[in-house]
Design brief:
The protein is mainly α. Helices cover about 65% and strands about 0% of the residues. Helix 5 crosses helix 6 and helix 5 crosses helix 7. The longest helix has 25 residues.
Length: about 140
């Protein structure tokens, strides 16, 4: 999980995990914005669908970096490999997580868990995943 994704902080906090410094900082700032009337609560908490999609995309980019492992694969090739990993995760690992018997997750599965935990619709086609990877600035992309 990354501290950059408020939805992931919220999910873990709601599940009963003790709040981290990042969680407390996010809550404090968000509540201050809500009390000032800056915007609706979901905007102040950064839990809008746009924020969820951004968190999902960040997790998919990190997953692609893991898959690439410094090999310099093209974004199109990586998109297909990530699509395969997403499919495997959704059909094999996610049901195990839901049953509580997933055990320790690999770094790739941890990123995919975070992508699914955002609540944003999962990206399951090579083209849609490619769009995410190709939109990432070249110094931060998986390619």
């Amino acid at each position: 999980m990354t501290a950059r994704a408020p939805i992931l902080l919220a999910e873990r906090f709601a599940a009963g995990e003790p709040p981290t410094a990042a969680t407390l900082g996010w809550l404090r700032t968000s509540i201050q914005r809500i009390l000032r009337g800056d915007a609706p609560a979901d905007v102040c908490l950064r839990l809008t669908m746009a924020c969820r999609k951004a968190a999902r995309n960040d997790a998919l980019i990190r997953a692609a970096r893991i898959v690439d492992a410094g090999r310099g694969l093209s974004a199109w090739h990586l998109a297909e490999l990530v699509r395969q990993a997403v499919n495997r995760f959704e059909t094999v690992t996610l049901p195990r997580i839901r049953r509580g018997d997933a055990g320790e997750l690999s770094p790739l599965d941890s990123e995919l868990r975070d992508a699914f935990a955002t609540g944003a619709p999962p990206l399951t086609t090579q083209h849609r995943i490619y769009d995410v990877l190709a939109s990432c600035p070249s110094d931060e992309s998986a390619t």
